[in-house]
Structures are given as structure tokens and as C-alpha cells.
Amino acid sequence: MKSVAIPRLRTSKNIAHTSAIPDFLVPALSYPPRSRRYASTTSSTADPSPSPQTNGPPKRRKPLSLEKRAFLDSALRVNQAGELAATLIYTAQTPPLLRSHPHLRSLMQHMHSQEAGHFSTFNALLARHRIRPTLMYPLWTVAATALGWGTAMLGREAAMACTEAVETEIGTHYNGQVRVLLGWMREMEEKGEEVGDELRELIGELKRIRDEELEHLDTAVGEDSREAKGWPVLNTVIRGGCRGAIWVSERV
Question: pLDDT digits over 206-223, tens only?
Fold first, then answer.
């Protein structure tokens, strides 16, 4: 059996709300040497015949096409990488921010906790579908940590400007994925195919995560992100970096 281990991460031990890296930051995912399989319904060994209570003709169960499977592989891979980066940004920002702005403790802990939960969700999805993480993992780890620490050292407004820029791109990214998956659902329904619980649950999770990311964006704006020195340049550079990282992670 081949396995893919995600490198162990190191961060500062003096983070205000935690004394050690949470377990979900250092997952080790194993991938059995079997081909990936997705279906429009949840896997089951039960008889696929319709229930006696079902009205009308039975709906067909059809596996996803190669194109759709490739989209899901790419989407889940980049989502996991993005949530890793977001978690590390907040991890790096927290110590310098709290030294000068201790009142931000609960806010930083709340946002970090949500990002860590998102990261855990996509780790589980990658393991379930045997999708390898991006090969750029080590680079994104360093880049996210440097971005978080660097913007925090520039001050509260710059740290919040970083959050605003990152969450703007992430929110747009998740919206695009939700639109694609909803399109699949409509297509399946029009063809009389069954839409499985797994696809519905994935759409629900993406919507939830997107909404929490947009909450972070609104919070950052409320915390004077646009008062940061050089905000237009900072916003443009960080958003451009996010788009580049998304493009690479989808493919590598």
C-alpha cells in the first residue's frame, strides 16, 4: 500500500489560545492503491431496486463522468490547500497581534477555530476519495506562515487587510464550485437520474464553509482593513497571489 504523508508543521509555541499544534494540522493520509470512484449516489450494498413506496418510474443511478471526477479531484485538493493556508495565516498572525491588541483574542481564536474545522473537513474528504494533496504543500506552508506573520507585524489593519483579500478570493472560489455542483444536480434531475446524498451533503458543506469565510471578510472590513497603509497595493498583491496558488494547486 502506498501512502502519502503530509509534512509535520511547526509554528510558534506562544500562541495565545493554544500551546501545541492541533492534531488536524498534521494529518497523515493513506491512499489504498485503487482507482477513485465517485457516484451520483452514496455507495451501498443494498438492492438498488426502488422502494415499494416510490411513486413513478425508478430513477437511474449513474457514476460521474471522467470529467466530473477530475473536477472533484481538483476542487477538493485546492480547497484543502486553501484551508491549510488560512489556518497557518491565523496561527502566525495571532502572537504579534495579541501582544499589541489583546482585545482581539476571542476574535482570532474564533476565526482560527473555524478555519481549522474547514481544514479537517477537507482532510476527511481527501482521505475518503483517495485524493492526494497538492505537491506544493511545503511551499504553501512557508508562504502562508510568512504572509500571516508579515502582515501582523505591519499592524492590526494590515492583518485584517490580509484576511479581507484572502477571503474575497476564497469566497468567490467556493461560489464557483457551488454553482457547478448545483448545475450537475439540475442536469441529473432533468435526465431522471438520482441525486445522491453524498453530492447534496458536499454542496451543503461548501455553502456553509463559504458563508463562514465571507463572515471573516465582513469582520475584517469592520476591523478597519481598508485603513491599512497601502491597502490598494496590499489587497491587489495578496488577491493575485491567492489566484495563482489556486491555479497551481488545482493542477499540481
Answer: 999 999 999 999 999 999
Burial 99-115 (b: 16+ CB within 10 A, else e): eebeebeebbbebbebb
User: Distance between CA 179 and CA 62 in Å, rounded?
Assistant: 21
Q: In whole angstroms, what is the distance from residue 28 CA to residue 180 CA? A: 30
Cell for 221? 472590513
Q: For the segment 58-111, what is each residue's pLDDT rounded down to a tens digit?
A: 566 677 788 888 999 999 999 999 999 999 999 999 999 999 999 999 999 999
CA distance 190 to 172: 27
Predicted model pTM:
0.75
Q: Is the separation of the CB atoms in 226 and 121 below 8 Å?
A: no
Number of Cβ within a 10 Å radius of residue 98: 19
* pLDDT, tens digit, 9 for 90 and up, residues 153-166: 999 999 999 999 99
Contact 225, 231 (CB under 8 A): yes
Amino acid (1-letter code) at residue 178: V
- Contact between 71 and 51 under an 8 Å Cβ cutoff? The reply is no
Residue 3 zone, left/alpha/beta (φ > 0; ψ -120 to 50; rest): beta
Residue 81 in grid coordinates: 490547500
In the numeric block, the cell 471522467 is attached to 66
